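Progress narrative, Year 2. Work on M28 family peptidase from Kaistella pullorum advanced from sequence curation to structure prediction during this period.
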Amino acid sequence: MKNIFVPLLSAVLLTSCATTNYSYDGRAFRKAYESISQDDLKRDLYIIASDEMEGRQTGSEGQKKAGRYMIGQYQKMGVSFPAPLKSYYQMVPQAFMQTKTRGGSLPESENILAYIPGSEKPEELIVISAHYDHVGTRDGQIYNGADDDGSGTVALMEIAEAFQNAKKAGHGPRRSVLFLHVTGEEHGLIGSDYYSQNPVFPLANTVANLNIDMIGRCDPENCGKDYVYVIGSEMLSSDLKKINVEANNKTVKLELNYKYDDPADPQRLYYRSDHYNFAKHNVPAAFFFDGIHADYHKPGDDSDKIDYVALQKRTQLVFATAWELANRAERIVVDGKNTR
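Result:
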């Protein structure tokens, strides 16, 4: 009996330790979660949304300069690119840009991808996305896009660093995590459309997409509240909303506002950011958003107007949600219909 019991006991203890380490109360999660800081978010955003980047118009030198900064940060973290790509860039050809644009002429551009392979289920993938383009300059004024979507861009980088910190401590994600910075969102969700048609990893293996597009400000209805809009989280999976709610309850305790989930809402925001290019391929998706404020697509969308406390909390919420998606025993179910 001894020879049977001891290995079984060891297996039970190992399983228990793994469960504890990956729980919201575990040391691994808490250290990674707490590494998401206002100082880091602010440092990166003041660079990404600086005048030097000239508004990050799709395909412009300013956008490429922002991309090079982002890649430099990933290299400092030790977070590499997906091996099939050979670099951090997924090129979006000019021919594709031209067929998808809402108007005008766009040059070739790039999605930027960083990647942490899973330790136990590397073939299964969580995609966390944000667009890093903005609208450039108009009438001699630079539209810096600090909230849209500089906030999502720097949040994505902080989430990657949090996962990488956990990996360095021996608790890397069980499933793979792809950090997808897409181009051309402002011209019709072009970069995410290209990725969804040319995925680096099969969409059938993509468990979920968490998309971040504007999480650094407040809209007139909610200023003074600790909140975030969550859009589409139960459209395709009954699990995804539950996981997001639990992650919120265990961490930042924001008010989760589902106003834009209403099929009758005239803004139709479910269709208007990059998550939709995953949802239309039956990949469960949730979109995190702060609302429409006075500086939306205006030259006043600058880094000094960002609420860095709110940006930190919303970033931590997305990380906590991704942590559970990446580390739970079973992938989430796909049991809903994208009917809107």
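The chain is about 40% helix and 15% strand. The CA atoms of residues 79 and 115 lie 6 Å apart.
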